[in-house]
Fold each of these.
Amino acid sequence: MQQYEKPIRVGVVGVGRGKGFARGAGPHLGMELVALCDTWEERLNELGKELSVATYTDYDKFLEHDIDAVILANYFHEHAPFAIKALDAGKHVMSETSACFTLAQGVELVEAVERSGRIYMFAENYPYMVFNQEMRRLYQAGHIGEFKYGEGEYVHPMSAEESARISPGMDHWRNWIPATYYCTHSLAPLMYITDTWPVKVNGFVIAHDPEDETHFGKTVRRSDLASMIAVRMDNGAVVKLLKGSLRGHGVWVRVHGNKGLMENLRFGDTHMVRVRREPFDKDTGEPVERVYLPDFPEHHAEAMKAGHGGGDFFMNYHFAEAIRRNEQPFLDVYRGVAMSIIGVLAYRSALDDSAPVVVPDFRDIEVRRQYADDHWSPAPWDRGPGQPWPSILGDMRPSNRGIEFASKIWRDSGYTG
Ligand SMILES: NC(=O)c1ccc[n+]([C@@H]2O[C@H](COP(=O)([O-])OP(=O)(O)OC[C@H]3O[C@@H](n4cnc5c(N)ncnc54)[C@H](O)[C@@H]3O)[C@@H](O)[C@H]2O)c1
């Protein structure tokens, strides 16, 4: 195991998804978990005891603990204000998706990182799955030529039971975020592989189906089933993203270049990569098609033990490396915000008959200043003139059946909020 001079003292916020970060932030990466924060006291104390670290229910008090870095796995829509507070307190930040919930928050977040001089990393783990790292290696080596067209899919259907279990409370974010918002798992791999940026977006939403008895008909969800987002990248390439709760679980990435195609397999071992180069493009002796299981380029053994196909290992790893080198990581604040606002802008497009919407480049101060007051938000507490409903169908109300079903599961899981 590599020896590190001084461990990076880490605090984690949110003990759901945050558990993985907390358990992974160990001496093997030169990190030391020292504190946890969550408002759900019972779950917080349980994990605090298991990991023998300080626990806080109050975020401001948690920030006063002697920590160098904060990992945010709190609610989807609250990462930006939490990140800004931590940066202003002099902490490095790694934030779960989404980086920001509105365009105004995106501007504020970018400016907080710039003013703090601290490291900010967007914790998108999907690019670091083994097949995506291999596709980046091939792409960067010029193997499939210039990026022309790509697809990213994150299709994650859930039973009504599971949906209720992981979405406690009528206003839990999973029960109302619009179908385009959780888009970074499908876009991030394509940005990582090809190093291109989104410039224009069209959103298409597949509406809520209250008649679906085993699914939305039995939950308290008020948003839609799924979305398809078309994105134009800065090199002219076109990308199609598919995400949501459609039947047919799958995580899939496809990249067409002007010299070949690569993708991960859709079935069997989905970590395997398929590369195809046409007979008129390929080198002599090179097969037209290759299908193989790649290794991680580094830390293969450790990554193999981690969640999300190894992607989770690389979050803590790259965050720690960025702090030690004092250099922003690849998944910096600009990329994190760019990926996150695609979900917002695609929803705007979907509500306008899928018309194209320009994606502002927040690396440009003049451009981002134009969005500093853009608080467009579907959150229940932001309801008001000009604000969108979470569903393209408008004000969807859960059925009594859905409310009864979910309430029982929440009670059984100890949720009292
Ligand atoms: N990258 C991935 O693969 C992946 C997987 C799951 C979740 N996520 C992301 O991680 C985040 C958390 O996901 P989750 O499934 O654990 O969600 P969750 O809503 O179940 O958990 C959030 C936790 O944050 C706590 N919390 C909320 N407000 C707080 C506050 N003010 N102070 C302290 N704690 C607070 C909640 O009590 C809860 O335990 C989300 O943004 C989600 O998008 C990412």
Amino acid sequence: MPEPLLDLANIDKSYGGNPVLRRVSMDLLPGEVHCLVGENGAGKSTFIKILSGAVRPDGGTLRLAGGSYSSLSPQESMRLGVSTIYQDIELIESLTVADNIFLGHELPAGIPGTVNIREQERRAGALLDMLRIRLDPGEPVENLSTAQKQNLQIAKAMHGEARILVMDEPTVSLGVDEKKALMRLVRELRAKGLGIIYISHFLEEVFDIGDRITILKDGEKVGTYDVAAMTADKVTRLMVGRDASQFFSRERSTVGETRFEVSGLSCEGVEDVSFSVARGEVFGFGGLVGSGRTELAEALFGARKRLAGTIILDGEKLAPASPLEALRDGVCLLTEDRKRLALFMNRPLSENVTVAHNELFGGALLSFALERAQVADMLAQLKIVAAGTDIDAASLSGGNQQKVAVARWLLCRSEVLIFDEPTKGVDIGAKAEIYRLMTDLAAAGRCVIMISSDMPELIAMSDRIGVMRGGRLAGILPGAKAREEELIRMFMG
Ligand SMILES: Nc1ncnc2c1ncn2[C@@H]1O[C@H](COP(=O)(O)OP(=O)(O)OP(=O)(O)O)[C@@H](O)[C@H]1O
Ligand SMILES: [Mg+2]
């Protein structure tokens, strides 16, 4: 067996007296992809933040690059060859691709205090070529798609002699083809001898590229296994204590009369889309990232200017000019970008759950007691793991933040609920909870519209699937009969 690149031993970490990691150990070999899995809040991100120097452990040892450490600073971690790509993309939007790659270690130009932009762009270009990432080094980051930003993060991580690459849920914002490209890149980096720690809630990915897998549960290590010796069922059982087969498959409710009707809708990025949703129906939207699904949802929610078309709910014409108007009309949208659009990171959890409800029904004080009970009920239903309802949204784990966003819209009691990637970053058990809630909403007669890039989810949940391509609706398929390959072919056109 080759010498490990990394050995983390007996790592302990608590927040305010709550243990988050208890004597967790993990090692990493050169040329291996070591996957780290566990439910939301299991401690995965905290564990790798200890390696990247973002979090200080309370106990344990980090052995790497011939040294032994009780904690690392971010600079030390980087110097020792660790590069980390976090769950939330951290780039500076106003700077170029090359500037972001060289951020913090800019190349000086002749005049002191100035940066050699041309040389940075040349070297960034060479790095991107080497990684076969197609990006223009001079392009401002704000013009990039999510997938391109993800690739830039990898390039940035690879700049400087990284030997250990840590990826925290790198595929959550990617579409099918972009996921494939990322998997290819990870394989190439592994072939170059890098050690890669890979966190994901998608077990398909783990079985696709993983060599070993470490399972965390409630801050403790369950074990480390060879991926080849595992099955998805076994991993799920170790992770959540239940079989994958016990998870949700949706009972289709009887679909009633048409309630929500969209005709000829156009907005920036969307051209002439018509569809309808019946009482009790879950209408899914599939398509590649950038196919216009999110833009369509925003137009329906009054968050994007409609250029043409009509929206009818229960025979009444709606023309929401703002999200607040849409909410009053009975239409709500769970956005996919929870960091920028959905959560107030520096506000308490409880406020994040009730904010839309309060906007809608006026002051929070009136229904304070009721609200508290509702919030508590929501947290319990969605199994949101948090130290209390008054802690900031920022200190929740990624998946729990997503659940808070879902809870907010469920409280609004809208007639039409649009969920844009509702289970992004959510673990398998909580996914089942969200599916159950969506099913209950449909069964109660609401119209549920779900945008999803997760193919099994799209197929299992949707009564019908609308496929978006290049801003247009390319077709509508019955959900139960749809097959993954057929859908992907339709996505590509
Ligand atoms: N700064 C913090 N202050 C208080 N608690 C925190 C802080 N950071 C993390 N936690 C808590 O530590 C626990 C583990 O969080 P962590 O982000 O490591 O989970 P995770 O396994 O990455 O989950 P996910 O799959 O949802 O991303 C959670 O209960 C979280 O609320
Ligand atoms: Mg996490």
